[in-house]
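seq as requested:
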Amino acid sequence: MRTRILVTLLAVTLLLAGCSAGGTRDDGRITLRFQSLAWQQESVEATRELVAEWNATHPDVRVEYVQGSWDSVHDQLLTSFEGGEAPDIIHDASDDLADFAYGGYLADLTGLLPERLEADIPERSWETVTFKDGIYGVPFLQEPRVLIANTTRLKESGVRVPTPEHPWSWEEFRRVTKQLSGDGRYGVAWPLKEPVSATLNLSLSAGGRLFHRGADGRVTVRFEEGDEVVPRTVHQQVNTDRSASPTTLGSGGSDTLPGFFAGTYAMLPLGFSYRQQIVQQAPEGFDWQVLPAPAGADGLTQGVSPQTLSVAEDCPHKEEAVAFLDFLLEPENMVRLALGDWMLPTGRTALADPALHTAEHGWATGTALAARLRPAPAQTVRGYPEWKDKVATPALQEYYSGAIGLDDLRKRLEEDGNLVLARYQR
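struct tokens:
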């Protein structure tokens, strides 16, 4: 009896394991595991609905929805790749793909992607997923960084309200935040718990690049004049002008919303998708609007790391996986995903949808910025996650808080940073 029970349990365990892993079942039906990082309720619902629609019309290729988390995706994927248990279809961000692409964990989609999809997404977006002349993901959602502003505070102060056609310069932005400050209130609150991507991506507007690739393909860090503009502005607002709250430097974006609603902060520099939380959480009658981020020598240009969909190299059914991606990213479906995540689609056809060009909730301001989005500076840099965590994040946090000066920041980003990156370029 004990033997029969153990055999039965083993059979059930193997059956469950077979159902949870991608592959072909005994009845010939293919099962693909799709790990999604959708987390907002509308986004999760939209993604699950599309998976269900695919399964209803493709009985021979079933897609199994697996919920992942942005908080742990890099380490979780690395573990699953090394253990041979990676999902077949992988939702991630383009600035997280370099090490996986160079490491041989992701499939090169060159020659597998349908012409419609390749033609509909701009070349600048494809650059974010191109490594070693191969394509290792499909960029499908992106978001500019914008200023979420208290409309009442702006009207009371009499400051000029910027538009995508006539944005603030970084110098004017600094003056405006000083004008909006006083009596325990601040013109801006910078939520910089994760300061690196915000700093690097906004620095493109001032001509900053930080990472420079030589003729030999090696990347070095150089903190030049254009790279100084954004961090220096934040540092001055916090430590000189007292126009930016020092207490939010270690906060995430969501942590600043209560102070914004209470009138403590007049503006918040946030990703475009934060509008959903503001709509859900703002007190009745709270008047807010979306403004473009400040412009520098290169105008409204800013870096972006689109959300991506990749196929694991170990996936035994790559053509079927790409067929699902093609379905998921049909223009009307891409619009559904964008609306669910309150972000912008990369596809030209989807981006032209009228639903994304309304004045309500600042959609039109966001879409007006789409053409100025460029690959994030760190996009193809091997070792970026380690450089970010061990060098750039602590250095920027100390600089923004006033603990170190600009020269110290430069030294740490360049000297310490290049030591880290060198290990990945031997």
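The chain is about 45% helix and 15% strand.
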